[in-house]
Amino acid sequence: MDALSYLICLLVGVALPVGAFYVGVRRAWRQLSAAEAYREVSRALGLRVDTRGVSVHGQVRGRRLWIGQVMTGYGAERDTEIRGVLALTRPLGLALHMRRRGARGRFRRRSPELEIGDVELDKRYEIHGDDLGRVRALLSDSAVRAAIHSLIERWPQVVLTDHGVRVGLKRPETSGPALEELIARLEQVAMALEASRQHIAPPPALEDVGHNWSELADRLGLDFEAHLPAVSGEVDGRRTLLAVRRMHDGYGISIRAWFHPHPELGLILKPQAGPDDYSSVGQDIQVADASFDASFVIKGWDPRIVRERLSEPVRAGLLELTTLGDVEVNDVAITVRGLDLEHDGVESAVRKVWDIATALGW
């Protein structure tokens, strides 16, 4: 081997560890910068930062927000992604699903694809919905178009559904201003979708529901929102929403009641059989109630205090609600999803949710 070959081997031998060191330092620096950006934004918007420094989450003007690492897939396909997710205040009820063409991930095409007359969006994104006319009307609103274009010009991996706005990020945002800009643009899309939906009549399959819920709203002391339909408002200072959700096999009902302000417990209570999501971190808590422990995954910062809050009346009420749908509780609200549209006990279910919130002391 000549001197040049020895020199090349030496340079390669030096470059490999130096390159690996550089990549490691850059990755660590990015993680530290992202964690600092999360802390900066959390202070500005009153959000929470994950203890591992990989996410920021909470409520932004009544909408649930999550930005950070999420686990996707199952088994050998399990992976980590960076996402920003902002929930809508009410489900749209149109089976809307818009995502970039060729995007990874599972997507059940249960509704036809449509074009909305926007050259860029029709070319780069696939859009589906139950009622093509209503979905087209929803997305034809000028404010909706402007908000979507503003978001995708910087974060093109966008997914719109009946329930929220989501973006996929190649890497975490490492500055507070960039993170705040992402949140602002997510909010713009969410607000525009909700405003546009107010001018669209509910699908024909929900006309009878609207008639029944008008009377239900009067009995509960809440307001009727005919365009969805939905029932919402406050009773004794407790904000409540009863809405229709588009499920995989048709329509279902969701009930949500928000808690009064109280010291947070980091509480997450959800069905035992449900898939893990981005909020599923921390040690499981058992409450020494076989039926309850078999039904729910429970997490929180202080197991003793969580057990005290989940008293026998609370546990009995939550187990009763599981016969109607999927039940979730966190520091913000109690939610029941998937009630049958024809169920005649919706009013009693709402009152049961109120009773449980009161029993929790929140």
The succession of helices and strands, N to C, reads HEEEEEEHEHHEEHHEEEEEHEHHEEH
Q: Please bin the fraction of helical residues.
A: 25-40%
Number of separate helices: 10
- Look at the structure and give the CATH class of the largest domain: Alpha Beta
- Span between N and C termini? 79 Å
The strand order across the widest sheet is 1-2-3-4-9-8-5-7-6
How many beta-strand elements? 17
The main β sheet shows up as: 9 strands, antiparallel
Describe the global form. Answer: globular
Name the CATH architecture of the largest domain.
2-Layer Sandwich
Low-pLDDT segments, ≥5 res: none
Strand content: 25-35%
Taken together, the total number of domains comes to 2
Provide the residue-averaged pLDDT: 86
The rounded Rg comes to: 24 Å
Structural class by SSE content:
alpha+beta
Describe this structure in words.
The chain is of the alpha+beta class. The protein folds into two domains: 45-197, no CATH class; 204-360, Yope Regulator, Chain: A. Helix content is 40%, strand content 27%. It has helices spanning 3-45, 119-124, 132-140, 142-152, 176-197, 207-220, 290-295, 303-309, 312-321, 346-360; strands at residues 48-49, 55-60, 63-72, 79-87, 97-100, 113-114, 125-128, 158-161, 164-169, 223-225, 230-235, 238-247, 250-258, 268-271, 296-299, 326-330, 333-340. It has a nine-stranded antiparallel sheet. It has an eight-stranded antiparallel sheet with strand order 10-11-12-13-17-16-14-15. Strand 11 (230-235) and strand 12 (238-247) form a beta hairpin. Helix 4 (142-152) packs antiparallel against helix 5 (176-197) and helix 9 runs antiparallel to helix 10. The longest helix has 43 residues, at 3-45. It is globular and about 90 Å long. It starts with a helix and ends with a helix. The mean pLDDT is 86.
